[in-house]
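We were asked to recover a plausible sequence for a given structure. The inputs and outputs are reproduced exactly as logged, with field labels preserved.

PROBLEM: sequence recovery
POSITIONS: 540
GIVEN STRUCTURE:
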Protein backbone atom coordinates (compact mmCIF):
# COMPACT_ATOMS: atom_id res chain seq x y z
CA UNK A 1 0.00 0.00 0.00
CA UNK A 2 2.88 2.36 0.73
CA UNK A 3 4.25 1.66 -2.73
CA UNK A 4 0.89 2.55 -4.26
CA UNK A 5 0.87 5.87 -2.45
CA UNK A 6 4.43 6.61 -3.51
CA UNK A 7 3.57 5.83 -7.14
CA UNK A 8 0.92 8.56 -7.21
CA UNK A 9 2.27 12.09 -7.68
CA UNK A 10 0.98 15.20 -5.94
CA UNK A 11 -0.21 16.43 -9.31
CA UNK A 12 -2.40 13.33 -9.65
CA UNK A 13 -3.85 13.78 -6.18
CA UNK A 14 -4.64 17.41 -6.96
CA UNK A 15 -6.45 16.27 -10.09
CA UNK A 16 -8.43 13.67 -8.13
CA UNK A 17 -9.34 16.28 -5.52
CA UNK A 18 -10.41 18.74 -8.20
CA UNK A 19 -12.45 16.09 -10.02
CA UNK A 20 -14.22 15.13 -6.79
CA UNK A 21 -15.01 18.79 -6.09
CA UNK A 22 -16.39 19.26 -9.60
CA UNK A 23 -18.61 16.17 -9.25
CA UNK A 24 -19.90 17.39 -5.88
CA UNK A 25 -20.79 20.76 -7.39
CA UNK A 26 -22.31 19.34 -10.59
CA UNK A 27 -24.43 16.75 -8.78
CA UNK A 28 -25.60 19.39 -6.30
CA UNK A 29 -26.92 21.73 -9.01
CA UNK A 30 -30.31 20.01 -9.56
CA UNK A 31 -30.93 19.66 -5.82
CA UNK A 32 -30.02 23.28 -5.14
CA UNK A 33 -32.20 24.38 -8.03
CA UNK A 34 -35.09 22.38 -6.60
CA UNK A 35 -34.57 23.84 -3.13
CA UNK A 36 -34.36 27.49 -4.21
CA UNK A 37 -37.22 27.06 -6.70
CA UNK A 38 -39.72 26.05 -4.04
CA UNK A 39 -42.86 28.16 -4.51
CA UNK A 40 -44.43 30.08 -1.65
CA UNK A 41 -46.13 27.78 0.81
CA UNK A 42 -44.30 24.68 -0.45
CA UNK A 43 -41.37 22.63 0.87
CA UNK A 44 -38.79 20.96 -1.38
CA UNK A 45 -38.68 17.24 -0.60
CA UNK A 46 -35.38 16.22 -2.23
CA UNK A 47 -37.10 13.56 -4.32
CA UNK A 48 -35.71 13.21 -7.83
CA UNK A 49 -36.10 11.12 -10.96
CA UNK A 50 -34.17 8.03 -9.81
CA UNK A 51 -36.13 5.67 -7.51
CA UNK A 52 -38.33 8.47 -6.12
CA UNK A 53 -40.15 6.20 -3.68
CA UNK A 54 -36.96 5.33 -1.80
CA UNK A 55 -35.75 8.81 -0.82
CA UNK A 56 -38.16 9.15 2.09
CA UNK A 57 -37.23 5.66 3.32
CA UNK A 58 -33.62 6.77 3.70
CA UNK A 59 -34.67 10.04 5.32
CA UNK A 60 -36.85 8.10 7.76
CA UNK A 61 -33.80 6.12 8.87
CA UNK A 62 -31.96 9.34 9.63
CA UNK A 63 -35.01 10.73 11.42
CA UNK A 64 -35.26 7.65 13.65
CA UNK A 65 -31.68 8.16 14.83
CA UNK A 66 -32.25 11.88 15.36
CA UNK A 67 -35.09 10.95 17.69
CA UNK A 68 -32.76 8.76 19.74
CA UNK A 69 -33.37 5.30 18.29
CA UNK A 70 -30.19 3.57 17.19
CA UNK A 71 -32.05 0.32 16.45
CA UNK A 72 -34.39 0.60 13.49
CA UNK A 73 -37.90 -0.50 12.65
CA UNK A 74 -39.72 -0.49 9.33
CA UNK A 75 -42.03 2.56 9.66
CA UNK A 76 -43.95 1.77 6.48
CA UNK A 77 -46.12 -1.04 7.79
CA UNK A 78 -48.43 -1.38 10.81
CA UNK A 79 -47.72 -5.00 11.76
CA UNK A 80 -46.02 -5.56 15.16
CA UNK A 81 -42.24 -5.64 14.93
CA UNK A 82 -39.20 -6.31 17.05
CA UNK A 83 -36.73 -3.44 17.22
CA UNK A 84 -33.68 -5.59 16.42
CA UNK A 85 -32.35 -4.18 13.12
CA UNK A 86 -29.14 -2.15 13.26
CA UNK A 87 -27.84 -0.50 10.08
CA UNK A 88 -24.38 0.94 10.79
CA UNK A 89 -24.33 3.19 7.75
CA UNK A 90 -27.60 5.04 8.38
CA UNK A 91 -26.77 5.02 12.07
CA UNK A 92 -23.62 7.01 11.29
CA UNK A 93 -25.46 9.48 9.06
CA UNK A 94 -28.16 9.85 11.70
CA UNK A 95 -25.58 10.57 14.40
CA UNK A 96 -24.06 13.26 12.19
CA UNK A 97 -27.50 14.82 11.72
CA UNK A 98 -28.17 14.70 15.44
CA UNK A 99 -24.81 16.08 16.55
CA UNK A 100 -24.76 18.95 14.06
CA UNK A 101 -28.51 19.65 14.25
CA UNK A 102 -29.05 19.00 10.54
CA UNK A 103 -32.28 18.15 8.83
CA UNK A 104 -32.42 14.60 7.52
CA UNK A 105 -32.26 15.85 3.92
CA UNK A 106 -29.22 18.04 4.58
CA UNK A 107 -27.39 15.21 6.37
CA UNK A 108 -28.20 12.92 3.45
CA UNK A 109 -26.50 15.25 0.97
CA UNK A 110 -23.58 16.15 3.23
CA UNK A 111 -22.86 12.43 3.54
CA UNK A 112 -23.25 11.98 -0.21
CA UNK A 113 -20.84 14.84 -0.94
CA UNK A 114 -18.18 13.68 1.54
CA UNK A 115 -18.33 10.11 0.25
CA UNK A 116 -17.71 11.27 -3.33
CA UNK A 117 -14.22 12.29 -2.19
CA UNK A 118 -13.72 8.92 -0.48
CA UNK A 119 -14.92 7.05 -3.58
CA UNK A 120 -12.48 8.82 -5.90
CA UNK A 121 -9.62 8.32 -3.42
CA UNK A 122 -10.17 4.56 -3.16
CA UNK A 123 -10.84 4.08 -6.88
CA UNK A 124 -7.69 5.99 -7.79
CA UNK A 125 -5.66 3.79 -5.47
CA UNK A 126 -7.14 0.79 -7.25
CA UNK A 127 -6.23 2.31 -10.61
CA UNK A 128 -2.67 2.89 -9.37
CA UNK A 129 -2.54 -0.83 -8.67
CA UNK A 130 -3.84 -1.68 -12.16
CA UNK A 131 -1.88 0.91 -14.19
CA UNK A 132 1.71 1.96 -13.65
CA UNK A 133 1.25 4.76 -16.21
CA UNK A 134 -0.27 7.89 -14.66
CA UNK A 135 -1.92 8.91 -17.96
CA UNK A 136 -3.88 5.67 -18.07
CA UNK A 137 -5.02 6.23 -14.50
CA UNK A 138 -6.23 9.73 -15.32
CA UNK A 139 -8.11 8.54 -18.40
CA UNK A 140 -9.64 5.70 -16.42
CA UNK A 141 -10.86 7.86 -13.52
CA UNK A 142 -12.41 10.31 -15.98
CA UNK A 143 -14.22 7.54 -17.83
CA UNK A 144 -15.43 5.93 -14.59
CA UNK A 145 -16.80 9.20 -13.25
CA UNK A 146 -18.43 10.54 -16.43
CA UNK A 147 -19.36 7.69 -18.79
CA UNK A 148 -22.94 6.55 -19.26
CA UNK A 149 -24.84 4.86 -22.08
CA UNK A 150 -27.20 5.59 -24.95
CA UNK A 151 -30.48 5.38 -23.10
CA UNK A 152 -31.12 9.02 -23.91
CA UNK A 153 -31.61 8.06 -27.56
CA UNK A 154 -33.41 4.73 -27.12
CA UNK A 155 -35.69 5.38 -24.15
CA UNK A 156 -38.23 7.52 -26.07
CA UNK A 157 -38.91 4.49 -28.29
CA UNK A 158 -38.72 1.82 -25.57
CA UNK A 159 -40.54 3.55 -22.73
CA UNK A 160 -43.63 1.63 -21.67
CA UNK A 161 -45.31 2.24 -18.32
CA UNK A 162 -46.64 -1.32 -18.40
CA UNK A 163 -43.13 -2.82 -18.67
CA UNK A 164 -41.30 -0.91 -15.99
CA UNK A 165 -38.15 -3.04 -16.14
CA UNK A 166 -37.63 -2.88 -19.90
CA UNK A 167 -35.82 0.41 -20.18
CA UNK A 168 -32.12 1.20 -20.72
CA UNK A 169 -30.44 0.89 -17.33
CA UNK A 170 -28.60 4.21 -17.56
CA UNK A 171 -31.98 5.97 -17.32
CA UNK A 172 -33.25 4.39 -14.10
CA UNK A 173 -30.82 2.02 -12.33
CA UNK A 174 -28.47 4.13 -10.16
CA UNK A 175 -26.28 1.15 -9.28
CA UNK A 176 -25.42 0.49 -12.93
CA UNK A 177 -23.51 3.71 -13.70
CA UNK A 178 -20.92 5.26 -11.40
CA UNK A 179 -22.04 8.85 -11.95
CA UNK A 180 -25.65 7.97 -11.13
CA UNK A 181 -24.44 6.27 -7.96
CA UNK A 182 -22.60 9.45 -6.97
CA UNK A 183 -25.66 11.52 -7.82
CA UNK A 184 -28.20 9.33 -6.07
CA UNK A 185 -27.46 8.12 -2.56
CA UNK A 186 -24.66 8.04 0.02
CA UNK A 187 -25.28 4.40 0.95
CA UNK A 188 -24.65 3.28 -2.65
CA UNK A 189 -21.47 5.35 -2.80
CA UNK A 190 -20.29 3.75 0.43
CA UNK A 191 -21.08 0.23 -0.75
CA UNK A 192 -19.36 0.48 -4.15
CA UNK A 193 -16.37 2.15 -2.48
CA UNK A 194 -16.07 -0.77 -0.08
CA UNK A 195 -16.34 -3.26 -2.95
CA UNK A 196 -13.33 -1.63 -4.63
CA UNK A 197 -11.44 -1.43 -1.33
CA UNK A 198 -12.00 -5.13 -0.57
CA UNK A 199 -10.78 -6.07 -4.05
CA UNK A 200 -7.68 -3.89 -3.75
CA UNK A 201 -6.74 -5.24 -0.33
CA UNK A 202 -7.30 -8.84 -1.38
CA UNK A 203 -5.20 -8.45 -4.52
CA UNK A 204 -2.34 -7.06 -2.43
CA UNK A 205 -2.83 -9.91 0.04
CA UNK A 206 -2.56 -12.42 -2.83
CA UNK A 207 0.52 -10.68 -4.25
CA UNK A 208 2.43 -10.22 -0.98
CA UNK A 209 0.96 -13.08 1.04
CA UNK A 210 0.56 -10.74 4.01
CA UNK A 211 -2.37 -11.40 6.30
CA UNK A 212 -2.81 -7.84 7.43
CA UNK A 213 -4.28 -7.06 4.01
CA UNK A 214 -6.79 -9.91 3.97
CA UNK A 215 -7.75 -9.08 7.57
CA UNK A 216 -8.27 -5.44 6.55
CA UNK A 217 -10.33 -6.61 3.58
CA UNK A 218 -12.37 -8.77 5.96
CA UNK A 219 -13.11 -5.81 8.23
CA UNK A 220 -14.19 -3.71 5.24
CA UNK A 221 -16.30 -6.62 3.97
CA UNK A 222 -17.91 -7.14 7.37
CA UNK A 223 -19.04 -3.51 7.48
CA UNK A 224 -20.24 -3.64 3.88
CA UNK A 225 -22.29 -6.82 4.26
CA UNK A 226 -23.76 -5.56 7.52
CA UNK A 227 -25.50 -2.62 5.85
CA UNK A 228 -25.62 -3.80 2.20
CA UNK A 229 -25.64 -7.62 2.05
CA UNK A 230 -26.57 -7.55 -1.66
CA UNK A 231 -22.86 -7.16 -2.48
CA UNK A 232 -21.81 -10.53 -1.06
CA UNK A 233 -22.21 -12.49 -4.32
CA UNK A 234 -20.15 -9.89 -6.18
CA UNK A 235 -17.23 -9.91 -3.75
CA UNK A 236 -16.94 -13.66 -3.32
CA UNK A 237 -17.93 -14.53 -6.88
CA UNK A 238 -15.38 -12.23 -8.50
CA UNK A 239 -12.54 -13.32 -6.21
CA UNK A 240 -13.39 -17.00 -6.70
CA UNK A 241 -13.40 -16.60 -10.48
CA UNK A 242 -10.07 -14.78 -10.33
CA UNK A 243 -8.48 -17.51 -8.22
CA UNK A 244 -9.73 -20.26 -10.53
CA UNK A 245 -8.42 -18.50 -13.64
CA UNK A 246 -5.00 -17.97 -12.04
CA UNK A 247 -4.89 -21.61 -10.92
CA UNK A 248 -5.82 -22.79 -14.42
CA UNK A 249 -3.30 -20.51 -16.08
CA UNK A 250 -0.44 -21.68 -13.87
CA UNK A 251 -1.77 -25.23 -13.44
CA UNK A 252 -1.06 -24.82 -9.79
CA UNK A 253 -3.11 -24.37 -6.63
CA UNK A 254 -1.87 -21.43 -4.55
CA UNK A 255 -2.79 -22.28 -0.98
CA UNK A 256 -1.92 -18.74 0.12
CA UNK A 257 -4.77 -17.44 -2.04
CA UNK A 258 -7.12 -19.95 -0.46
CA UNK A 259 -6.10 -18.95 3.06
CA UNK A 260 -6.62 -15.25 2.37
CA UNK A 261 -10.00 -16.00 0.78
CA UNK A 262 -11.00 -17.99 3.86
CA UNK A 263 -10.03 -15.09 6.12
CA UNK A 264 -12.30 -12.79 4.11
CA UNK A 265 -15.09 -15.38 4.29
CA UNK A 266 -14.67 -15.71 8.06
CA UNK A 267 -15.37 -11.99 8.51
CA UNK A 268 -18.50 -12.38 6.39
CA UNK A 269 -19.98 -14.93 8.79
CA UNK A 270 -21.18 -12.48 11.52
CA UNK A 271 -23.23 -10.20 9.20
CA UNK A 272 -24.59 -13.24 7.34
CA UNK A 273 -25.69 -14.90 10.59
CA UNK A 274 -27.13 -11.60 11.78
CA UNK A 275 -29.19 -11.11 8.60
CA UNK A 276 -30.43 -14.70 8.83
CA UNK A 277 -31.36 -14.13 12.48
CA UNK A 278 -33.33 -11.02 11.52
CA UNK A 279 -35.26 -12.86 8.83
CA UNK A 280 -36.09 -15.74 11.17
CA UNK A 281 -36.93 -13.63 14.22
CA UNK A 282 -39.00 -10.82 12.69
CA UNK A 283 -41.53 -11.89 10.07
CA UNK A 284 -41.97 -8.26 8.96
CA UNK A 285 -38.33 -8.17 7.87
CA UNK A 286 -38.74 -11.53 6.16
CA UNK A 287 -41.82 -10.34 4.25
CA UNK A 288 -40.06 -7.10 3.39
CA UNK A 289 -37.26 -9.09 1.77
CA UNK A 290 -39.70 -11.34 -0.06
CA UNK A 291 -41.51 -8.32 -1.51
CA UNK A 292 -38.32 -6.51 -2.48
CA UNK A 293 -38.16 -8.10 -5.95
CA UNK A 294 -35.50 -6.51 -8.18
CA UNK A 295 -35.34 -8.45 -11.46
CA UNK A 296 -32.88 -7.48 -14.16
CA UNK A 297 -34.17 -6.20 -17.48
CA UNK A 298 -33.16 -8.03 -20.65
CA UNK A 299 -29.51 -7.98 -21.64
CA UNK A 300 -30.27 -5.45 -24.38
CA UNK A 301 -31.23 -2.87 -21.77
CA UNK A 302 -27.84 -3.26 -20.11
CA UNK A 303 -26.03 -3.06 -23.45
CA UNK A 304 -27.84 0.15 -24.31
CA UNK A 305 -27.26 1.36 -20.76
CA UNK A 306 -23.49 1.07 -21.21
CA UNK A 307 -23.60 2.31 -24.79
CA UNK A 308 -20.31 2.92 -26.59
CA UNK A 309 -18.45 1.69 -23.52
CA UNK A 310 -19.37 -1.84 -24.63
CA UNK A 311 -17.44 -1.97 -27.95
CA UNK A 312 -14.56 -0.03 -26.40
CA UNK A 313 -14.46 -2.45 -23.44
CA UNK A 314 -14.59 -5.47 -25.78
CA UNK A 315 -11.62 -4.07 -27.66
CA UNK A 316 -9.86 -3.43 -24.36
CA UNK A 317 -10.76 -6.98 -23.31
CA UNK A 318 -9.15 -8.33 -26.48
CA UNK A 319 -6.01 -6.34 -25.72
CA UNK A 320 -6.04 -7.56 -22.12
CA UNK A 321 -6.43 -11.22 -23.14
CA UNK A 322 -3.06 -11.00 -24.84
CA UNK A 323 -1.57 -10.06 -21.48
CA UNK A 324 -2.05 -12.86 -18.98
CA UNK A 325 -0.80 -10.90 -15.97
CA UNK A 326 -2.84 -11.12 -12.80
CA UNK A 327 -4.17 -7.57 -13.02
CA UNK A 328 -5.71 -8.16 -16.42
CA UNK A 329 -7.12 -11.49 -15.28
CA UNK A 330 -8.78 -9.76 -12.35
CA UNK A 331 -10.50 -7.19 -14.58
CA UNK A 332 -11.75 -9.99 -16.81
CA UNK A 333 -12.96 -11.93 -13.75
CA UNK A 334 -14.83 -8.89 -12.45
CA UNK A 335 -16.47 -8.25 -15.82
CA UNK A 336 -17.49 -11.86 -16.47
CA UNK A 337 -18.70 -12.65 -12.95
CA UNK A 338 -20.70 -9.46 -12.40
CA UNK A 339 -22.30 -9.82 -15.82
CA UNK A 340 -23.31 -13.40 -15.09
CA UNK A 341 -24.67 -12.49 -11.66
CA UNK A 342 -27.23 -10.18 -13.26
CA UNK A 343 -29.30 -13.23 -14.18
CA UNK A 344 -28.76 -15.66 -11.32
CA UNK A 345 -32.10 -16.82 -9.83
CA UNK A 346 -32.17 -14.57 -6.76
CA UNK A 347 -34.64 -11.81 -5.95
CA UNK A 348 -32.16 -8.88 -6.02
CA UNK A 349 -30.63 -9.42 -9.47
CA UNK A 350 -30.59 -5.74 -10.39
CA UNK A 351 -28.63 -4.85 -7.27
CA UNK A 352 -25.77 -6.96 -8.61
CA UNK A 353 -25.10 -4.42 -11.33
CA UNK A 354 -23.40 -2.34 -8.64
CA UNK A 355 -19.73 -1.93 -9.45
CA UNK A 356 -19.96 -3.53 -12.91
CA UNK A 357 -19.50 -0.12 -14.52
CA UNK A 358 -15.96 0.12 -13.09
CA UNK A 359 -14.29 -2.85 -14.92
CA UNK A 360 -16.23 -1.92 -18.07
CA UNK A 361 -14.88 1.64 -17.85
CA UNK A 362 -11.31 0.46 -17.12
CA UNK A 363 -11.34 -1.97 -20.05
CA UNK A 364 -12.90 0.74 -22.23
CA UNK A 365 -10.02 3.01 -21.23
CA UNK A 366 -7.59 0.33 -22.38
CA UNK A 367 -9.49 0.18 -25.67
CA UNK A 368 -9.44 3.96 -26.09
CA UNK A 369 -5.70 4.16 -25.49
CA UNK A 370 -5.05 1.22 -27.83
CA UNK A 371 -7.07 2.93 -30.59
CA UNK A 372 -5.19 6.17 -30.02
CA UNK A 373 -1.81 4.47 -30.28
CA UNK A 374 -2.88 2.35 -33.26
CA UNK A 375 -4.03 5.38 -35.23
CA UNK A 376 -0.95 7.35 -34.31
CA UNK A 377 1.74 4.95 -35.50
CA UNK A 378 0.95 4.12 -39.18
CA UNK A 379 -0.10 7.62 -40.23
CA UNK A 380 1.57 10.28 -38.14
CA UNK A 381 0.36 12.99 -40.50
CA UNK A 382 -3.31 12.38 -39.81
CA UNK A 383 -3.34 10.92 -36.32
CA UNK A 384 -4.12 14.32 -34.76
CA UNK A 385 -7.39 14.45 -36.70
CA UNK A 386 -8.36 10.90 -35.72
CA UNK A 387 -7.38 11.50 -32.11
CA UNK A 388 -9.38 14.72 -32.03
CA UNK A 389 -12.44 12.94 -33.43
CA UNK A 390 -12.06 10.19 -30.83
CA UNK A 391 -11.71 12.60 -27.90
CA UNK A 392 -14.55 14.87 -29.06
CA UNK A 393 -16.83 11.87 -29.57
CA UNK A 394 -16.07 10.59 -26.09
CA UNK A 395 -16.59 13.98 -24.48
CA UNK A 396 -19.91 14.44 -26.26
CA UNK A 397 -21.43 10.97 -26.09
CA UNK A 398 -20.13 9.33 -22.91
CA UNK A 399 -21.83 11.58 -20.32
CA UNK A 400 -25.03 12.35 -22.25
CA UNK A 401 -27.42 10.17 -20.24
CA UNK A 402 -26.02 11.54 -16.99
CA UNK A 403 -26.77 15.09 -18.09
CA UNK A 404 -30.19 13.95 -19.28
CA UNK A 405 -31.03 12.60 -15.81
CA UNK A 406 -29.99 15.84 -14.11
CA UNK A 407 -31.75 17.88 -16.78
CA UNK A 408 -34.89 15.82 -16.21
CA UNK A 409 -34.77 16.68 -12.52
CA UNK A 410 -34.33 20.40 -13.20
CA UNK A 411 -37.22 20.26 -15.67
CA UNK A 412 -39.43 18.49 -13.13
CA UNK A 413 -38.57 21.01 -10.43
CA UNK A 414 -39.35 23.83 -12.84
CA UNK A 415 -42.67 22.52 -14.12
CA UNK A 416 -44.06 20.22 -11.41
CA UNK A 417 -44.51 22.47 -8.42
CA UNK A 418 -46.39 19.82 -6.49
CA UNK A 419 -46.17 16.26 -5.13
CA UNK A 420 -43.78 14.47 -4.95
CA UNK A 421 -41.17 17.19 -5.50
CA UNK A 422 -42.90 19.75 -3.30
CA UNK A 423 -45.43 19.36 -0.49
CA UNK A 424 -47.46 22.02 1.28
CA UNK A 425 -45.99 23.61 4.39
CA UNK A 426 -49.24 22.83 6.12
CA UNK A 427 -48.60 19.12 5.52
CA UNK A 428 -45.09 19.39 6.97
CA UNK A 429 -46.57 21.29 9.93
CA UNK A 430 -48.98 18.40 10.54
CA UNK A 431 -46.16 15.85 10.32
CA UNK A 432 -44.14 17.83 12.87
CA UNK A 433 -47.20 17.86 15.11
CA UNK A 434 -47.33 14.06 14.90
CA UNK A 435 -43.66 13.90 15.86
CA UNK A 436 -44.18 16.08 18.92
CA UNK A 437 -47.54 14.74 20.11
CA UNK A 438 -47.63 11.01 19.36
CA UNK A 439 -45.63 7.98 20.42
CA UNK A 440 -43.47 5.53 18.49
CA UNK A 441 -46.17 2.88 18.80
CA UNK A 442 -48.83 4.98 17.09
CA UNK A 443 -49.89 4.14 13.53
CA UNK A 444 -51.15 6.73 11.04
CA UNK A 445 -53.72 5.87 8.36
CA UNK A 446 -53.53 7.90 5.13
CA UNK A 447 -53.26 7.52 1.38
CA UNK A 448 -50.19 5.89 -0.13
CA UNK A 449 -48.85 9.23 -1.40
CA UNK A 450 -48.71 11.10 1.89
CA UNK A 451 -47.86 7.90 3.74
CA UNK A 452 -44.53 7.87 1.93
CA UNK A 453 -43.64 11.20 3.58
CA UNK A 454 -44.94 10.88 7.14
CA UNK A 455 -42.10 8.62 8.46
CA UNK A 456 -39.43 10.86 6.90
CA UNK A 457 -40.62 13.97 8.73
CA UNK A 458 -42.27 12.60 11.87
CA UNK A 459 -40.57 9.26 12.42
CA UNK A 460 -43.99 7.69 12.93
CA UNK A 461 -45.38 4.43 11.55
CA UNK A 462 -47.84 4.53 8.66
CA UNK A 463 -50.32 1.89 7.55
CA UNK A 464 -49.44 2.35 3.86
CA UNK A 465 -46.57 4.17 2.18
CA UNK A 466 -43.90 2.17 0.32
CA UNK A 467 -43.73 -0.62 -2.22
CA UNK A 468 -41.56 -3.37 -0.71
CA UNK A 469 -41.74 -2.16 2.90
CA UNK A 470 -45.52 -2.06 3.28
CA UNK A 471 -46.50 -5.65 3.96
CA UNK A 472 -49.23 -6.88 1.59
CA UNK A 473 -49.04 -3.64 -0.35
CA UNK A 474 -51.50 -4.44 -3.13
CA UNK A 475 -54.18 -5.61 -0.73
CA UNK A 476 -53.73 -2.53 1.46
CA UNK A 477 -53.76 -0.24 -1.55
CA UNK A 478 -57.14 -1.65 -2.63
CA UNK A 479 -58.42 -1.42 0.93
CA UNK A 480 -57.39 2.24 1.14
CA UNK A 481 -59.25 2.95 -2.09
CA UNK A 482 -62.37 1.33 -0.60
CA UNK A 483 -61.98 3.21 2.68
CA UNK A 484 -61.83 6.68 1.16
CA UNK A 485 -64.22 6.14 -1.78
CA UNK A 486 -67.58 6.04 0.01
CA UNK A 487 -68.84 7.53 3.25
CA UNK A 488 -70.68 4.42 4.49
CA UNK A 489 -69.76 1.00 5.93
CA UNK A 490 -68.52 2.62 9.13
CA UNK A 491 -68.64 -0.60 11.13
CA UNK A 492 -66.27 -2.37 8.77
CA UNK A 493 -63.99 0.66 8.59
CA UNK A 494 -63.80 1.02 12.34
CA UNK A 495 -63.03 -2.70 12.67
CA UNK A 496 -60.23 -2.28 10.11
CA UNK A 497 -58.64 0.58 12.03
CA UNK A 498 -58.80 -1.26 15.35
CA UNK A 499 -57.62 -4.60 13.95
CA UNK A 500 -54.56 -2.98 12.34
CA UNK A 501 -53.63 -0.95 15.44
CA UNK A 502 -54.32 2.39 13.72
CA UNK A 503 -54.42 5.23 16.24
CA UNK A 504 -54.58 8.31 13.98
CA UNK A 505 -56.25 9.12 10.68
CA UNK A 506 -54.71 11.75 8.42
CA UNK A 507 -57.16 13.72 6.31
CA UNK A 508 -55.63 16.06 3.72
CA UNK A 509 -55.79 16.94 0.05
CA UNK A 510 -54.82 13.46 -1.19
CA UNK A 511 -57.50 11.80 0.92
CA UNK A 512 -60.18 14.26 -0.17
CA UNK A 513 -59.45 13.55 -3.82
CA UNK A 514 -60.06 9.81 -3.39
CA UNK A 515 -63.72 9.98 -2.51
CA UNK A 516 -66.57 11.00 -0.25
CA UNK A 517 -65.42 9.69 3.13
CA UNK A 518 -65.99 12.39 5.76
CA UNK A 519 -64.12 11.71 9.01
CA UNK A 520 -65.71 14.72 10.71
CA UNK A 521 -69.01 12.83 10.98
CA UNK A 522 -67.58 9.63 12.47
CA UNK A 523 -68.20 8.97 16.18
CA UNK A 524 -65.10 6.78 16.37
CA UNK A 525 -62.81 9.63 15.24
CA UNK A 526 -61.92 12.69 17.32
CA UNK A 527 -60.30 15.77 15.76
CA UNK A 528 -57.14 16.67 17.63
CA UNK A 529 -55.22 18.78 15.10
CA UNK A 530 -56.22 20.96 12.20
CA UNK A 531 -54.75 23.61 9.91
CA UNK A 532 -55.72 25.01 6.53
CA UNK A 533 -55.18 21.75 4.64
CA UNK A 534 -54.80 18.83 7.06
CA UNK A 535 -56.89 17.45 9.89
CA UNK A 536 -55.64 14.67 12.15
CA UNK A 537 -58.15 12.48 13.97
CA UNK A 538 -57.55 10.09 16.85
CA UNK A 539 -59.25 6.69 16.69
CA UNK A 540 -61.38 6.35 19.80
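RECOVERED SEQUENCE:
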Amino acid sequence: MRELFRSITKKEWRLVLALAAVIVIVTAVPYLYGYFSAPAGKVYTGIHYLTPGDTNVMLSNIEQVKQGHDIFINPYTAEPQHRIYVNPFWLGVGWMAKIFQMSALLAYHVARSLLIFVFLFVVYLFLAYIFADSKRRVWAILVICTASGLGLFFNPFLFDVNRIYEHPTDTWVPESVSFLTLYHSPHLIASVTLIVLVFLLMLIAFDRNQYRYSISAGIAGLFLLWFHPFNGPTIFGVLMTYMLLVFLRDRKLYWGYVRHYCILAAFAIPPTVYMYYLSRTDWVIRKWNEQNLLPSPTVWMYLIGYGILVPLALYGLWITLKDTKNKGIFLISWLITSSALLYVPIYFQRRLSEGLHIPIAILATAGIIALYERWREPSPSSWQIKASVLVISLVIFLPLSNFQIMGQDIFNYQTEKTYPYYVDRTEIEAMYWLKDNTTLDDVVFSTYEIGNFIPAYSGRIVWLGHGPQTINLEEKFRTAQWFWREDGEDGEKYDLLKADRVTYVWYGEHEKLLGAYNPATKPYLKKIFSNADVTVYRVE
